[in-house]
């Protein structure tokens, strides 16, 4: 098949989930992935299924996504190790504590209830936390999942549902004719009247080719994992801070390893498709990890990695219809917080493409926010 | 219970005493921690994944299958750590939250 | 950060590293020598701890003169190099080694880097191989050499290659009742490999002598065998195996030493960015070197068994040759005759190595028949079945993708033990050549890095 209702460029979590939900809505889909499904940011990110701490207008999308995460086995037949273990943002300073309080109040308006825990209650509930932690903002229904599994799981489900997925299908050029987009790839040409660009950090190049340049920068988040320990640390946790270097986060997987990330990023290249893990960044993470979870000091790190992620200048993704080209849709540039959103993005993009309505407000993510106004 | 390792030479070194899981053992100065523990017993740790006990494999710092705990909560790679008098080693439950 | 000293770093103080450092010192350079263990010597000529009294003859047998010479050379070097024992190189970053010594971090910039990282046993898993009492062949030898201990009073040795017979003989000599030497290679292979093995008649004769001594002592030696299972509850009780005629046997034992040749420690070469190529004879992806030890990365040199398995004698020559290459590349005069002589001597050893690969091939064929429940990755307890599922249902076409799906090779050892075998299992499951199954990419830290590591002030 070289023709379908929709072509999706990019087989990360956004693209594979969109392919799956488009099939649920009865549209035929061809997904074109240059490398392997889920092999860049979708497969190398931290694995956070976190709603708290987000840009608030993102919460309807995050809430929709959280509902899908909770029902993954029913929807795609496997759970991708999703664990609704709770999520903690921890403040060590008075001003960070104040920000947690303000965020909790504001998030409630958007349908997200957060518990603010302090003092002895904090020690009693999470005894392994640092005694210097002042406050935890607890989001009890958030959690984490395995990023190496999620996008491939959606890809398999999409395939079972009848989507056509091609790996190794680098896009060489896209032409819009009267009715169709014609996508030239390394493995041949494909044609469809509707086109979704979910090419992650590379999405900006394609948008620019359609006359919609956006300020997106590739970068390399710095990840690592400890040796396995008995499973004791249920919630995902991160330091709530405005100091970049301090902003580390961690989660213990059920098998026992503690995955961590955060702090300074390193360079990533769209051309070599490589993201650099700077071991000095790993070293810089260590004291902050130990401050967040003192018992981790006894453990050893056994692996580090990174992946190519795209960060928008305003830290908000590009999602929705093109501002210029009919039939063209975008979902890219998720700035390192897209993993939780992925299933919801898929469901929302499918609804938008199939019905013309997203079902939830997504206007803040529209690409037209970067369009140049009329001169003068 | 007999240990996994058996001394066949160099047995005239001075004895040292260590504690393993609360039990006192005697080793010899110059033993690695792995030697001390496996002359006295047949385990170093449990696999984290429920597939049984482990007692090292490569003895040269490559396989990483001989990490043990001290009672104080430090981690030691037994094959490359010299046994020292007074060490208090745990091969079972970890001093972990 | 400024390069200190002469900016030449040698990683590894075994035969290759010591001879490389010695050659650099002879040229008036003061290299930094970084060694993970507390003492120099490497594994083959591993030194026993202070306070042990056995003479080199008791420890290294026929190689005692070489061991003594190497140790003396190393001793003489200590005041003339920046000697850093007990130091783990855990990452390489922009011409700098990141090292950890007793929890202290340090960055060591280099202009020239000679990696002499050695080798460890190459493994083929079998059911039960993680039971207490099963060690690598190298491990069985180290227990004896460095600790005066044996892994069993009635052990069995399983695998293939010269080390199998050497260790069995060393145990026999230590007074142990060896219950069997079980070799997966067919004896006929040795005959066919004779033209290559003849490149080093002395070694060939020595190997035959070990075999003869074992036979004289009544030790059962079986070739062309198929290992089936290690039996035991919480420690080794027996090894089940099948002979060439298809008859099953059960050898009761209290220890098993297993190994199928060696595999180079190539993680640091990988982190340094060195190109790798598939070596059909070894059935391994190995870093590419020119004849003199230059890797594909300028100023990074590879020597000894860490680059390709040729044994300790070759490692000494290759270390010296790599040092010559580094000296020449940095503009110092090196006598061409010296390098030509080293190359010529190495050529014979390379030929012998090709013979060993033919005589004692890695038993890749066993991978296809490993029961699904066999643990392949001992760190993460990942079974052959899970690996096959990654390659089958999940479509992983090479080992890194299979690792992402199954966690094979993700554990503390970073795939050192399971990597080559995992590639064989995947290749067999997918019906693809081993070369296509690829190799696990290296990642920092190459060995576990304590989180309590203190950054340099």
Question: Which helices and strands occur, and which strands form pairs?
Answer:
The complex is a heterotrimer of chains A (376), B (97) and C (457).
Chain A lengths: L5 E4 L3 H12 L4 E4 L8 H4 L3 E2 L9 H11 L2 H5 L10 E5 L2 H16 L5 E4 H7 L9 E5 L3 E2 L2 H14 L3 E3 L4 E6 L4 E5 L2 E5 L1 E4 L5 H7 L6 E5 L2 E4 L9 E4 L8 E5 L5 E5 L3 E2 L11 H14 L7 E6 L3 E4 L5 E4 L6 E5 L9 H14 L21
Parallel strand pairs in A: 1-2, 1-12, 2-8, 4-15, 12-22
Antiparallel strand pairs in A: 3-7, 4-6, 5-6, 9-10, 10-11, 13-18, 13-20, 14-17, 14-19, 15-16, 16-17, 21-22
Helix pairs in contact in A: 1-7, 1-10, 3-10
Chain B lengths: L5 E2 L7 E6 L2 E6 L4 H8 L4 E2 L6 E2 L12 E4 L4 E3 L10 E3 L7
Parallel strand pairs in B: 2-8
Antiparallel strand pairs in B: 2-3, 4-5, 6-7, 6-8
Chain C lengths: L7 E4 L3 H12 L5 E3 L21 H5 L3 H14 L4 E3 L2 E7 L2 E6 L2 E6 L2 E4 L3 E3 L12 E3 H11 L1 E2 L4 E6 L1 H12 L6 E4 L3 H6 L1 H4 L3 H16 L4 E2 L3 E6 L6 E5 L5 E5 L2 E6 L1 E3 L2 H5 L4 E4 L4 E4 L12 E3 L9 H18 L6 H24 L6 H4 L5 E3 L4 E2 H8 L7 H8 L12 H12 L3 H4 L11 E2 L7
Parallel strand pairs in C: 1-2, 1-7, 2-3, 7-21, 9-17, 11-12, 11-17, 12-13
Antiparallel strand pairs in C: 4-5, 5-6, 8-18, 14-15, 15-16, 19-20, 22-23
